[in-house]
Write a structure and sequence with these properties.
This protein is an alpha/beta fold. It has helices at 2-18, 27-50, 55-83, 104-130, 161-173, 195-203, 206-211, 226-238, 247-258, 275-285, 301-307, 320-332, 341-352, 358-367, and strands at 182-188, 214-221, 263-270, 292-298, 313-314. It has three domains: 2-135, no CATH class; 149-314, Rossmann fold (3-Layer(aba) Sandwich); 320-367, no CATH class. Helix 10 links the parallel strand 3 (263-270) and strand 4 (292-298). Helix 3 (55-83) runs antiparallel to helix 4 (104-130).
């Protein structure tokens, strides 16, 4: 959602800048809409974190999505008109060059639709304030307490056996590939769905241990620092802290440790959308033996598109009965839930609102 809103902001600003003459009369509304979108984009991180435990925020995100689609329709309509315009001798590429597209009829139609959208979006923006959504940066969520490791911390993981088997089969067959030394399998899902847990299950599977000569785990987070990632990989192989070296020396050192070995690297919780940063790291890791693999977990499909060479694995939501089992464990503990039939009824209604997200089920169950 955040990426979509960001694209809308960029498109609106570009339109206002390039076609201000045509948009005379509606440019002001577009500028207002751009500011509202920017302000809304700033709180989407907070909204996405809270939606699993707050139905009102879920509904707010749904309304935002509907209006965002309407805005996109208006911009698509504009782009369709613009595509019909041919370059003039001056090289002008503007709807002002086209007397039909630049007519009052076109302005009026765009203006009316923009005013309707602006009215809806004003209401959504006001609701954002009432919901208490914060514009704090992602960094507040990315701290040491969120750092992950390769060990499974859950006493029991429900509903992921089939997906684990599927990924293990893919990774252990990759040695038969002929077109690349290193394959990248992205796991994509919303926060709290269990991407890290699934990656841990795969990482610790006996077949994976037997198949790969090296298994390495890196918690990446928002700061995709290539030098830091390389250092973590070196330390994981050597089991000692690496000395301070220049970036180039670090790259050579890691390549020396990986060269000729079939390895598995898990890059957990990746947010980087800059292809150049990924290419820097990928170029270092391509020295492994054929069949080496990288598994990356991320919330964003764009990250998977940038990094993946294998088909993206979209993590499914848990079935309601499995969410209930998680909720029940946390809410009732060792006691028999059936001893409290009224609470069971309430609990099952709560579980329906968890949307198949295990973290939400566990958090709400533990809270209760």
């Amino acid at each position: 959602m955040e990426a979509s809103v960001g694209i809308l902001v960029d498109t609106l600003n570009s339109m206002i800048q390039k076609e201000f003459g045509l948009l005379c009369g509606v440019a002001t509304d577009m500028q207002k809409l751009s500011r509202l979108l920017s302000a809304t984009k700033a709180v989407l991180e907070d909204a996405e974190q809270k939606q699993f435990t707050d139905k009102a925020i879920q509904q707010w995100l749904q309304k935002l999505n509907v209006v965002a689609c309407e805005i996109e329709d208006v911009l698509d309509d504009y782009a369709a008109k613009a595509s019909k315009v041919k370059y003039k001798n001056s090289g002008c590429f503007s709807l002002m060059c086209d007397p039909v597209a630049g007519s009052l009829v076109f302005r009026g139609r765009i203006g009316t639709r923009m005013k309707e959208i602006l009215a809806k979006f004003n209401s959504i923006a006001d609701e954002r304030i009432k919901l208490g959504l914060s514009d704090q940066k992602r960094g507040s969520y990315f701290n040491a307490s969120r750092e992950t490791g390769s060990m499974v911390n859950e006493p029991e993981v429900l509903g992921r056996d089939e997906e684990k088997e599927q990924i293990v089969r893919i990774l252990t067959k990759e040695k038969d590939g002929v077109d690349q030394n290193v394959s990248v399998l992205p796991i994509v899902g919303v926060g709290g769905l269990g991407k890290t847990t699934l990656a841990q299950l795969v990482f610790n599977d006996q077949r994976i241990t037997q198949h790969f000569e090296l298994k390495l785990w890196v918690w990446v987070s928002e700061d995709f620092d290539v030098k830091r990632i390389i250092k973590v990989l070196i330390c994981s192989i050597q089991r000692t802290l690496t000395e301070e070296l220049e970036s180039l020396s670090l790259e050579r050192k890691l390549q020396g440790l990986l060269r000729g070995k079939r390895y598995l690297v898990v890059l957990d919780d990746v947010w980087n959308k800059n292809p150049e940063e990924w290419e820097k790291l990928k170029s270092v890791l391509e020295c492994g033996a054929r069949g080496s693999s990288i598994v990356t977990t991320t919330r964003m499909e764009k990250v998977a598109t940038i990094m993946g060479t294998l088909q993206t694995h979209y993590l499914s939501s848990l079935l309601e009965n499995l969410c209930w089992s998680l909720f029940r464990q946390r809410a009732f503990g060792p006691q028999e839930a059936e001893e409290y039939p009224n609470l069971v009824v309430i609990g099952k209604e709560i579980v329906k609102k968890c949307g198949g997200v295990p973290l939400a089920a566990k958090a709400l169950g533990g809270f209760l």
